[in-house]
UniProtKB/TrEMBL annotation:
GO terms for molecular function: DNA binding. This is Heat-inducible transcription repressor HrcA. Residues 112-332 form the Heat-inducible transcription repressor HrcA C-terminal domain. Coiled coil: none annotated. It comes from Rhodanobacter lindaniclasticus.
C-alpha cells in the first residue's frame, strides 16, 4: 500500500510521479506513458511506466480522464508532490528586489501597506492575492483626543502606532466641559500611550476597583468617559483581496457556477477570513489543496498562505488563491518572502508593537 506521505514509494516511482506532476503543472494536459518516459529520463519501457501508473492510480495519486489515455495528478497526488517531491528554491534576486522596492515602510497606514502586499502578490502570481487586516486593538495606542458633541456625546479620536485613526462616539450621562475633556485626555495619554486597547481596558478596570486610585481621585467625573472610550467593539477583522478577475483566465476554473461561488466567497469574506485567521495563528507556510480547506467554494483551488507579524507577535496572514494547477515551486517562495518583508516593514514602522 502507498501511504499518503509517500515514504514507501521507491526512487523510480517517485521520479516518475514528480515528472508527471511537473509536466501537468506546465501544460495542464494528461501525461501519457511515452511522454513520461522522455521527460523522466528513465530507461524504462512505456509498458513498465503504464504498470507503475496503474499502481499510482489505485493509490489515488493520479487519475485517468475519460477522454485521454494519459493521467493527471489528484489533489492527494499534488499534496504528496508539495510535501515530499517538490524542490523549493529561494526567490530569485530580481523578484525579491521587486518585493522590497514595492513594500517600503513609510508614513502610510498598516492597511495601505497590506493593500500593497495583496496587489503585489496578485501581480507576481497572476492569481488572487489575499491578506488579513489585524484588529486595530492589536496595535498600541499613540494618542487620544476628545471633542465635545451636542446632547452629552463625545467624539473619541484614537491614533495608533501604525498611523491608523479610529473615531468613536460615546454617550455620557451628562455633558463634560472642555477642561474636563482635556484633563481626561492628558491623563490617559500620560498613563496609557504605548499600550494596546485590551491592556488599557484591564488597567481601567483595576483602577475602578481600587478605592482612592489616582484615576478615581483626579478624574472622578470623567471615569465614565475613559471606560466608554475603550469599551469592547465589534470585531474589525477584515481581509483585502486583489486580482480576483485573474482567476477567470484559469481554464481549471472556467465553469460558470464554480466562478460564481468563488466570487461570492470573495464578496462575503466570512469563510475565507476564517481560513486565513487559522493560518495566521501558525508560523510558516500553510497550503490547502482543493477540498482540504473545508469550504466548498475552494474545492477547485489551492490556497497558499504565510503568517506575518511584528516583535514576535503574529498579526495576520498573506496568501494566494488560484487553481490547483499552479507552479507551487514559484508561488510558495513568493508568498513566504512577502510575509517576511511585510513583517520587516511592520517592525520598522511600529517598533512599539
Amino acid at each position: 500500500m502507498i501511504l499518503p506521505h509517500g515514504h514507501d514509494l521507491d526512487a523510480r516511482t517517485r521520479r516518475l510521479l514528480r515528472a508527471l506532476i511537473s509536466q501537468y503543472l506546465v501544460d495542464g494536459e494528461p501525461v501519457g506513458s511515452r511522454t513520461l518516459a522522455r521527460s523522466s529520463g528513465l530507461d524504462v519501457s512505456p509498458a513498465t511506466i503504464r504498470n507503475i501508473m496503474a499502481d499510482l492510480e489505485d493509490a489515488g495519486l493520479v487519475a485517468s480522464p475519460h477522454t485521454s489515455s494519459g493521467r493527471v495528478p489528484t489533489p492527494r497526488g499534488l499534496r504528496l508532490f508539495v510535501d515530499s517531491l517538490i524542490e523549493l528554491q529561494p526567490l530569485p534576486r530580481a523578484e525579491l528586489a521587486r518585493l522590497q522596492s514595492e513594500l517600503p515602510p513609510g508614513p502610510a497606514t498598516t492597511r495601505d501597506l497590506l493593500g500593497n502586499a495583496s496587489t503585489l502578490l496578485s501581480a507576481m502570481t497572476r492569481f488572487a492575492g489575499v491578506v488579513t487586516v489585524p484588529r486595530q486593538a492589536d496595535f498600541p495606542l499613540r494618542h487620544i483626543d476628545f471633542v465635545a458633541l451636542p446632547e452629552a456625546r463625545v467624539l473619541v479620536i484614537l491614533v495608533f502606532t501604525d498611523n491608523q485613526v479610529q473615531n468613536r462616539i460615546v454617550q455620557l450621562a451628562r455633558p463634560l466641559a472642555t477642561s474636563e475633556l482635556e484633563q481626561a485626555a492628558n491623563y490617559l495619554n500620560s498613563q496609557f500611550a504605548g499600550l494596546r486597547v485590551d491592556d488599557i481596558r484591564a488597567h481601567l478596570l483595576a483602577e475602578v476597583r481600587e478605592t482612592g486610585s489616582e484615576l478615581n481621585r483626579l478624574l472622578a467625573s470623567t471615569m465614565e468617559l475613559a471606560t466608554a472610550s475603550f469599551a469592547p467593539q465589534p470585531s474589525d477583522a477584515d481581509m483585502l483581496v486583489s486580482g480576483q478577475t485573474n482567476l477567470m483566465a484559469c481554464a481549471e476554473l472556467a465553469d460558470l457556477q464554480r466562478l460564481r461561488d468563488l466570487f461570492d466567497a470573495f464578496q462575503q469574506k466570512n469563510e475565507l477570513l476564517q481560513l486565513m485567521e487559522v493560518c495566521a495563528k501558525a508560523p510558516g507556510v500553510r497550503l490547502f489543496i482543493g477540498e482540504e480547506s473545508g469550504f466548498a467554494a475552494l474545492d477547485g483551488c489551492s490556497v497558499v498562505t504565510a503568517s506575518y507579524g511584528a516583535q514576535g507577535r503574529m498579526l495576520g496572514a498573506v496568501g494566494v488563491i488560484g487553481p490547483t494547477r499552479m507552479a507551487y515551486e514559484r508561488v510558495i517562495p513568493v508568498v513566504q518572502a512577502t510575509a517576511g518583508l511585510l513583517s520587516d516593514a511592520l517592525n520598522r514602522v511600529a517598533v512599539t508593537l
